[in-house]
Amino acid sequence: MVVKLAESIPEIAQCYPLLVQLHPYLIAETFVEQVQRMQHDRYQLAYLQVDDRLVSVAGFHIGESFAWRKYLYIDDLVTDTETRSQGYGSQLLSWLAEYAEHHQCVQLHLDSRVTRHPAHKFYLNQGLIIGGYHFLMELR
User: Fold this and answer.
1) pLDDT tens digits for 4-14?
2) Strand 69-79 to strand 2-5: parallel, antiparallel, or no bridges (unpaired)?
3) Are 83 and 35 in contact (CB under 8 A)?
4) Can you tell me the distance from the alpha carbon of 67 to that of 74, in angstroms, rounded to the nearest whole number?
5) Are the beta carbons of 112 and 76 closer than 8 angstroms?
């Protein structure tokens, strides 16, 4: 098992089947182009591969703010529904924490919809804490 950054078009494209499990509105034909646009804003994709199969994917970026100082923000984290509860999500999350520390981040953040109770249990079991509320406003 190895974690890699998706940098080439084929590597990015192979992440689609997992990310669409988290975001069902994604469109296969525009997925790579969208990721490439997001990469201009520091977005990166990391994936965990077992043999020839992707089992977990994370989209993330490193940023800096007054509130969080230098941080790694996990935009997306998903393990294939067929391979959940086998430790792949925790391995990828550990890799992200190590990556953050290697890049001098002092915090790791993510948001999770309030209805995703199994994900919340997983995050709490991994040592994450509930640090506040996230508010949003739909604009369209």
Assistant:
1) 999 999 999 99
2) unpaired
3) no
4) 17
5) no
